[in-house]
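Issue: ligand-bound run for S-adenosylmethionine - logging full I/O for the record.

Environment: standard queue, default settings, no custom constraints.

Inputs:
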Amino acid sequence: MIERDKASYGRFVWNRHPSLVRTAFFLLSCLLFLVVAWVLGMLLLSLTKRSDPTIPVCVRKKNGCRLSCLLVWAVGASLLFGCRTEYREDLDYSHKVLQTWKIEEIEEGVFVQFEDVFWEADDTTSLRKMIALDLIVDGKSVLEIGTGSGVLSIIALKSDAKRVVATDINPAAVANAKYNAAMLVPDRTLDVRQVSQKRPGAFEVIGESEAFDIILSNPPWEDGVVAKPLDHAFYDPQFYLMETLLDGLPLHLKPGGRCLLAYGHRPAIERLQDQCKERGFAFKILDRRNLDDLKKDFLPGMVVEIRVPMAVRELETESDISDAEK
Ligand SMILES: C[S@@+](CC[C@H](N)C(=O)[O-])C[C@H]1O[C@@H](n2cnc3c(N)ncnc32)[C@H](O)[C@@H]1O
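Outputs:
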């Protein structure tokens, strides 16, 4: 079940304006505690005055002052220490927070959605369950193409993936995925890479020698024009991302590896099936629903599995060798 959580929004406003808020909060707190400490000191002074009139007034005043100072410094130091641990220098706080979300695969903490970043958890309901419950990434290397808020990659890290690389073409998504990973899996590293608008191919920021056990994506489902950063979540102009993803599988998917894609759009699934057939890839829909019974657009999305048979790999290697010899 997805729960939208606006209550914790304040925490992220704190993080978005670290220097200003931290300074103002620290100064205000100091002022407040100075007043409290002074009142406490005066109270103590009047108590000692009543209980032991033999102590000279100057000593009692000094004790009151010492107590006030001690309290102020203790509170100030703990505040300063607390503020430091709250704030991470390596994250980008310039993006506006749209809202926060809770999902059942990650019980503790919430996902933050930055402005201009995609969030529709129903797209990936089955894929998230496969990652979190079926141990498909346990000890495996994972690549996620088009990570958005980082939701799939973060669940993969939580589910003991050995290594996770995530890419996105939208700079707000790259910052968002880094932020969510830092908050939700602080003990693991999510390697988030920015894809450039000029070179939007699926493996453009993946090294030639990098290969993965699992390649995941909830890609944009339709061919269309991208006018603003958020449009990348919905439109894949001329299906260039789909084409380059399939073309790169023999090189970047390890032998025996699985490419798992989430789709809720019939024409895209049918196109993908045709493209896989042309390339000799194994294509399988991992869903009990029959594609023909579904509307053009449907939710929750279904998972499509693509595998590259050994025979296709061998053919690719042979053609690479003959290309090199020419
Ligand atoms: C439908 S959203 C899915 C986001 C996230 N994986 C999720 O399930 O919530 C598709 C994502 O792919 C990204 N994207 C689109 N074209 C891309 C490309 N050529 N390279 C990398 N990411 C791309 C978009 O910016 C968007 O964040």
